[in-house]
Design goal:
This protein is mainly alpha-helical. The chain is built from 11 helices and no strands. Keywords: Membrane, Transmembrane, Transmembrane helix.
């Protein structure tokens, strides 16, 4: 089992370190922009003809809200979601394309062990990526002389990962269904990524202008972010339960299909 884990790590380590770099860039950029954005929002509120939004006072006075808005409800979440999908790609299908699958299938390891080993590595890498972002935020906040709640950072990280396991399972299913690394990735991003980004942007606008719509039930991105002040009672447990059920169904479909693939 350790060799399977090591093999999966070797295949995904470039993606993992690229993900760490992308997460660090996003976190550092928006922490560096904090003072400038707060100054701009303050000027807009002081201008009678300026751009006034009801969230601006929160953005000015609540650093925790600022981090939640730009990172966990937006750009860090998007980076994490992209790399969570990328971590799930690979395994026996990739080896079949590379011509080495017969050696792997000849080992005393079942196809299901190959699958769940790769999924375990993808999950561990996704968790490590999110925790690395927490470290970057803590250090960066100290550099810009801001204080943030470690407990809130960890709670939002846990929620993002707990809801985001669906992305890992979905990406792995697409990889077994569609031939070729690039084709499966493109189809996954088209089927899941485009609606995810569009709905996230649309629902954020609707919340900021104070309107509600039934599309809120499909707002998977907001479920990953949760409210900016996260607590046990504020956690979207119903959505998490539905997400875990879908994840289990996707894993079952992947196993069933993977057992019948002719390598």
């Amino acid at each position: 089992m350790r060799m399977l884990l090591y093999k999966a790590w070797i295949e995904t380590r470039v993606r993992f370190f690229t993900g760490l770099l992308a997460a660090a860039i996003v976190c550092i950029f928006y922490m560096q922009q904090h003072a400038w954005l707060v100054s701009m929002w303050t000027g807009e509120l002081q201008n009678p003809h300026g751009y006034h939004m009801k969230w601006m006072p929160l953005g000015i006075h609540e650093y925790g809200w600022y981090l939640w808005h730009y990172l966990y409800d937006n750009y860090l979440q998007q980076v994490w979601a992209l790399f969570a999908i990328l971590f799930a790609f690979g395994g026996l299908v990739r080896e079949r394309n590379g011509g080495t699958v017969l050696f792997s299938l000849g080992l005393p390891v079942s196809r299901r062990q190959w699958l769940f080993t790769r999924l375990a590595v993808a999950l561990f890498e996704s968790i490590a990526l999110s925790l690395f972002a927490v470290l970057v935020v803590i250090v960066g906040s100290l550099v810009i002389h801001q204080t943030c709640s470690l407990s809130q950072l960890l709670l939002h990280t846990a929620l993002m990962v707990a809801a985001g396991v669906f992305l890992i399972a979905f990406g792995n299913l697409c990889y077994t269904l569609f031939p070729g690394n690039y084709m499966s990735l493109i189809l996954t991003l088209a089927v899941l990524g485009a609606p995810y980004l569009w709905l996230q942007t649309y629902m954020q606008h609707m919340r900021y202008v104070g309107h509600s719509t039934w599309l809120g039930y499909l707002d998977f991105a907001h479920a990953m972010a949760g409210p900016w002040q996260l607590s046990w009672s504020a956690t979207p447990w119903t959505i998490l339960l539905v997400t875990w059920m879908l994840t289990a169904a996707l894993l079952a479909a992947t196993v069933a299909h993977g057992d019948h693939i002719d390598y």
